[in-house]
Amino acid sequence: MVEIEDLITHMRRVQAAERDMRDLSLTWQMIEASAAISCPQDVQSILPTLTQTRERFDGLQRRLVESLASESLAELQDELAAKAQCVIDILVRNLFERTADVGFLATDEVLRGFCARDAAARGEARDDVRRRLAEYRSKYTVYDDIVLLDPQGEVLVRLDDAPMPARSADPIVREALSAPGYVERYRPTDLAGGSAALLYAHRIEDGGRGLGVLVLRFRFADEMTRIFASVADSRNQFAIVLLDGEQRVVASNDEGHVPLGVRLPATAEGAVDGVIFGGREYLAIACSTHGYQGYMGPGWRGFAMVSLLTAFRSRDASADHHSVTLDNTDLIAVQDEATVINRNLRRVVWNGRLMARAEGHDRARLKAVLTQVSLAGARTRSRVDQAVGELHRTSLARITHQASDLARLAADIMDRNLYERANDCRWWALSPALQSTLAGAADPAADARLAAVLEHINGLYTVYARLVAFDAQGTVRAASREDGARPLVGTRVPPEILAAVQGLSDTQRYAVTPFAVNALTAGQPAYVYLAAVRAPQSGALAGGVAIVFNTVAELTTMLREVVGTRKAVAAFVDAAGRVIACSDPACEPGTALLFARTAGVHAHEDVHYAVAVQSACGYREFKLQDGYRNDVQAVVAIQLGRVERRQGRTLDLAGAAAPLERSRSRELAVVQVGTGVYGLPAEAVREAVAPRTVLRAPNASPHVLGLIEVRDSGRPRILQLLSARHLLGISAPARAGDGVAVVLQTGPDRPAFALWVDDVVSVIEIDGGLVQPPPVASMARQQLVAGLVDLQGVPGDPLVQILAPEHLLAEPAAPVPPLAKPKAEAGANAASEAASEAVAVPMGEAVAAD
User: Fold this and answer.
1) Which of 330, 344, 345, 478 could cross-link with 450 by S-S, CB 3.0 to 4.6 Å?
2) What is the pTM of this model?
3) CB-based burial, 815-850: b 16+ in 10 Å, e otherwise
4) What is the mean pLDDT of the chain?
């Protein structure tokens, strides 16, 4: 298996991010060292936080680079696997039908009777048998030749006019005569002029005696061209092949690049591996089939590879949906860590600017350090945001591409499946048993024999709910799976069904009812496939055959197999958007689709989904050349994550931090709560802290979160913690990870307390003359807002609401004195009754309960 470290040199975006992050790490080391040298006393309180933040940034750098590289490789693996898996699974589903075809056709009474005749009698019937086989091939167009051979290999009848020996030496004849079922072989054969061919053979017998062998030659190269085209993209840089058990290529989307018969290196199953082919390095993946109804195909694997030189070139970028949360553990962890680092940097600068106001500090040097921290923080934030954005886009693109691949696969499988249904009804309409019975007068005995034939066929083809045969007047003469309580025999088919059959001009025509309930569908909406049955001699219309496809059940199974274990929903919908089948039981047939029928990111029930839509356009002549039109779309929606309605970046006021040379200047400590920006008089603010726990006191006021411990001159002190969101009437909960406690004290005789805000922004200097009084009806708790100031020149021109700290304590509690002992020793001698009765809970839990 390839090591991701060996691939980073080929990932340009990852290399650029790694280089930029390394440069930023050096910048932080220089700032940290210069601050310790230039003003060691002044930065003593913030230096540990700077060191911790730099160390966390180094960890984030490694994790971010690893995540970018892993996500890039995962995106490539998804694309390679989707192509390799789709190629082999689509083929295996097709070949499963071939195994059924050869077994059923080998029981055909006409073919059996022909093989049982002597040589002279065969000569007289040969043209009739050849015409019958030609009728079969004209409907099942996946075959290019059909051959009947006697037990010695002598060719009795064949459709291909190309020269071939009168007697075949292919061992498949002997193998089929001794096998209990079908025989499947791919190899060079004289039945294909010496070329390799995919053959399906079955013995024709009567009473256990082998009369001959039927061989169907599958149009393998033609089919693979269609499959390869269905998974191709505009870049056309992938080599996609089928490999046999010896790693030899049996089919290739580009034979000039990867020729047939060449042997490729062995690779691990289902994972990207490095291979060397033709002297060049490739990344490749091999996928075995999932199988279909127990059938695993000829033992081949799908294989896709791409040159290492082009593997990680920029792919089509997904639309920018940065606000869409993704259920991606690595991405969430990186985003959370980046948020913590950014918040810590803002808190360092915020506290430093407050510190610079105090006497006894070298304000010039301290402000110079803080300016460097602020600038480096902005660069760090920008580069980390860019890298996280790339990681988010790559993750989203992966899921979007998966949805698109699955929608295309679902539409393709549906078309191929319904192609078989159109073939079945037309071939069964040529049954001598149907033709003779429906052409004659009603006869209970003959009708019973016909019903037995239909029951036998329905037992073999379980995808049908029932098979119905009716005469030219529309009277049902026989049906499989009859309901004793409501028998169909003797009733008339709906007029529209009889009219549709009467309009079929030849044996190649068929009709399909709309997806709906009718008299033949036993109360369930379904597609019913119709073909005309004609009299054996005259060719006049004798009646028709209706095969009721078990539409909802079969298509639902199909959709569930497509989505697998993913958190996804898949559906087939008609042109009006009504559901035909859906993988989600809550979405019933006939109802409107729950999702928009447009590709993109859509929200449903507070969850975002990546939605892909693919029209089912047909397969071979089905819906493309046969006149049948049925506008159906496959819709796949893969869950992305919960809708986050608390979006929005923290405001950046770095440009407003320069001091103003005005006589009426005021300093504001700016914080963010919800989408609002608030200012606190800097003289009332002591610091910003990030407590890990809060003591929840019983019977506290609704706006009181509890009690927190802070350090005051090196000693622990308990402060009341208030919720800014509650005080300001903001009902929406904060985002996960939001929150910092601002310590306030409005005067020496006033109690200190803490205010829980979403984040700190900056400490700025404003012109006091620009402060405007708040509108009378600006908010319910008017006394909390002392004024408004518009920060013109700052991006977005934010309006800052200046809070009055003295009014935040509407119901001031008695001050809690400094603790004489650590909390662990307080016990029964607690410094206050409130603290002794409080219960410690994590900070996030306390905020969530607010």
Assistant:
1) 478
2) 0.84
3) bbeebeeeeeebeeebbbebbeebeebebbebbeee
4) 88
